[in-house]
Structures are given as C-alpha cells and as structure tokens.
Amino acid sequence: VREAEAGDAPRFLDRLRAGETAAFEELVITYQHRVFGVAVRMLGNAAEAQEVAQEAFLRAHRALADFRGDAKLSTWLYAITSRLCLNRLATAERRLHRQGEETLLRLAGGEWPDVAVERSEVEAALHRAIAELPEERRIVVVLRDLEGLSYEEIAEVLDLELGTVRSRLHRARADLKDKLERFLP
Amino acid sequence: MSCHDARESLSAFLDEALAPDERQRVAQHLEGCSECQRELARLEQTVALLHRVEPVRAPVGFVDAVTAAARPRPWYRRVAAAVFLPFSVKLPAEATAVVMVALLAVYVFERTPALQESARTQPEVREDPRQKTARPAPPAALTDRFARDSSSGERSPESKARPLEKEQDRRETPAARGRIASEAETPKRLSAMRNFLLSFLIILATVFFALGIILPVIRFTTVYVWTNEHSIATIILALYESNEYFLCAVVFAVSIFFPFLKLFYLLTLVTSPDLSPEFRRRSFSTMEWLGRYSMTDVMVLALMIFYVNSSGYTEAVVMPGVYFFAASALITMLAYGWANTVPQRPTALTASEPAAGEIVTLPTNPARRHRPSSRRPLDRRANRSREYSLD
Description:
The complex is a heterodimer of chains A (185) and B (391). Chain A has 185 residues and is an all-alpha fold. Chain A is built from ten helices and no strands. Helix content of chain A is 71%, strand content 0%. In chain A, α1 crosses α2, α4 crosses α9 (151-158) and α8 crosses α10 (162-179). Chain B is mainly alpha-helical and 391 residues long. In chain B, 64% of the residues lie in helices and 5% in strands. Chain B has a three-stranded antiparallel β-sheet. Classes of the chains: A mainly alpha (185), B mainly alpha (391). Chains A and B meet through α2, α3, α4, α7 and α8 of A and α1, α3 and α4 of B.
C-alpha cells in the first residue's frame, strides 16, 4: 500500500532543517497524498481535510528546525496529521455536527467533490463503515489497513502502548467485519 | 487458551505482530477450534476488503497552496502575535501587570518623603514606658538587634514626664523632616542609599513577580509540533475551569497570594517608618513563614519537567517565566533579609548618646523619629523634652 520511503536521506533532512524552500516543496510533494488521505478518512470531508493537511505541513514547516530525525519523516507527519484530525473531531462544534449525523450522511451519499474514488457499492459501504467507527479506532485502522503502517509505527504516531494499538485495531476490525458482513464471501 | 483470549489476538495474528510464543499458542488454539478459524477467515476477508480501498489523492494545487502559506510572516506580525496572542489570556494579564506596577510606583512615589525621612533616623532601644529602669528591649529577633545597636547608652531611672512636648514633636511635618534629612551627613546618605536600594529591589521583585506569573513557565512539545505553553496564570485558570478548586486555591495561594503578601509587607515595612514594633515583628515572622513556600512552584515545575522528559514522546522545557518567578522569590528573600537587619549606628552619632545619669528618651518605635540626639545633639533641654511620662 505504501510508497517506498523516499525522503529520509540525511542530506534531505539537512536541507529541510536549513529551511530550503525546494526541500520543503519536495517534502510536500512526497507526502501530500498520505497526509491528505488520513485527513479525509478521519474527517470525511474534502474541504476540511485539505485544511487540516495544509495545517499539518505548515506545523511541520515551523518545527522542522527542531526535528531531530529520531523518528521517520513519514511517522512524524502521520503523527501531526492524526493529532490535528483527532483534535478537530473532539471540538464541541464538530460533536454537535455529528449528532445530526450529517457527516455520515454526507459520506454515505458520496459527497467527495475533489477526491477521485471509485464509487462502487462496496466502496461506499466501506467508507460508511469506517466513518462510523469511533475516532480512536478509526485512526488505528486507517493507519494500519489503508496506510500500511506497522504496529510499532502506529504506537509511535499515536503515542500509545503497543498493546493498546493491538486491541484498538482488533476492535476496529471486528466492528468493520460486522458491518461489512454482506460483502464478505 | 480460551476462545475469548484467542479472538483478542486474531487481528495481530493475521498481521504477524505477535511474539513467537503467543503466536504458537494462538495457532494451537486455532487447530482445535473451528469457530475461531471461521472468525479468523472473516477477519482476513475484512482486511482484504479494506486493502481494496483506492488510495486517496490530494487535490490539484495542494502543493502550491501549502508552499505559499509556508512563506514566513513579516516580523512585526510575529512579534504582535507573541505579545498579544491568545488575547483572552494575555491582554487581561498584561493589563493587570501594568496596573499593578503603576499602583506600586504611585505608592512608592507618595512615600518618598517618608523614605528620605526614615533614612535619617536611626534605630533606638525599645523600652516599656511603664518601667523606670531602662533595659534592653524584649528578646524578639528584631528588637534584640535594635537593643544591641543602641545599648551603649545608659539609662537613668529618674525620667520625668513631658507629654506635651511629645505631642509637639508629632506635629512635625514630613516636609520639615525632609529638610532636616537633606542636611544629612555621610552615614545618613548611606542609609538613604540603603532605603533606595531596598525599594528598588522590591519594585524589581514586583515586576519580576508579575512577569513570572504572566510569561509562560513551561512548554510541552509533542511530536516537535504541538507546543503547549503555560504560564502560572493560565495554569490557575485551567485548574479553575476544570473544577479543580482545591488545587486552584493552593496554586493561587502559593504562587500569587503569598508572594504578593510578602512584597506588600516588605514595601510597607520600608516605606512606613511609623509602624508599631509589634506589627513589625509579627510581619517579619509572617514573612519568614511565607518564605518557606516561595519556591514551591519552581520545585513543582522541576519535578514536572523531570517526569515528562523521562516518559518520552512529549518534551517539556522551562520558559523565561520560571526565571522571573525564581528571581522574584530570591530578590524578595534578599530584600527581606536586608530589611530585617538594621544599619550600623555610625560612631559619630553615638557620641551624643545620653550618658549615665541622664534622662532617657523613650521612642515610640525603634526604627525612627525619636532620635533627638541626632537632631539637636547638644540641647539637653530639648532632649529632655522628649521624655515619655514614666509616672
């Protein structure tokens, strides 16, 4: 699922840390789809996802000078994006929004203007099932099964214990299995 | 291994994310349990379904939008943001600080004649007016020191009462006193210097105290990106908002109320020479008691930083606020220690001490004012005119 780890060479990190504009642009080009992908699956709304993804890159940009490189760039960007999404989902406004189930309806209705997704029945059901997961399970399943991170990476990204990642992922998959029962062979 | 335990591990089993021995146990259980086998198969199919989801692509123009937004803001906007954001916290805090400093300045300014005047005065022995025989004052720390300073003079028991003159003396205006002070000799100027430095230290401590409360004292950084800065003021506010009233009260008392009280006491002691010795002594012991808690905040922050940094992922660093707060506490302690000592009596003045057999003057307070010898050193009658009624 995941593209090859491209930009973690020490040279590239140095250029980033030095504040080189071209290096930052390279970083955005390399990671834009992953960052945006996590955001759109967490938030279920392309406009909001774009906003959050941009915010994630900007935050990274501001903090690049302090980035020590003890984590991979991808892990770091995933961590920033996940947190931004979870924070946004946790705000009161958003919660109100969800009480009206608007987000879910929007997702199920497939209102994804800019995103090129196959709109098959399975696909729609999948999106709906993922969107219905509680956030802390959703982020784990998105990172694991859609973005292809390892358990260790997820633990690092979300600042969780490995055991917690494991159990959340299990619950998330069990939920999905129940919801997608009719599509399973 | 029970079915329940096995199912908990199936997802990790699928991902080969189990420890070898655990994996073995799940495998063993699966061999004998068709239910769990079925469960594993369903799970595997679900995951396969998830893998079929098309990867999402960021919208066209996303990179340009990000790089455009990443261009640095002009410096004045950054400075403004650092000073005023968030408005809800920083503006009231800054306004409070300005008002506090202004009030303090006015207060000190108004007291300036008294300051000068108190510089002129020297400590005297404190005596019980009802006692006919003069003795060094009671052994409380402060008065003890006064006693040591001035015990060179010997007292005569046969003092006579002149309450009227005392009244007269009281009517002396601060301006008159100031005039006398301006004619001061070197030791007096030294004393004025001391008072000026003391008030300066106290004002400095107050400003630092205000800064220590307003400026962030700690910053938590998560993933290098989430910086959470807290000042003592915002911590107290946050505690209040999360209904931790007890903690809020404790932190408020220890970090705002006590230091404020200390500073206020100190200022009062320095600027008001007319305080009764009893009040002086009590306030000093109160400050001593308060002093024990002055560094509590710094300790708590040190522990917090140690804890946070030892637990990984989130980093905590101290911010300038701590230094201001600590400096304020230290300066207060220093000023307090200094105010608690009394300047050495210049030898030139002891010459005019009443000799044995002379009439004793009994000051109302040890710190100042009833120091006839320094004002009219040779006028015995004037000296006598300051006696208290000892009958």
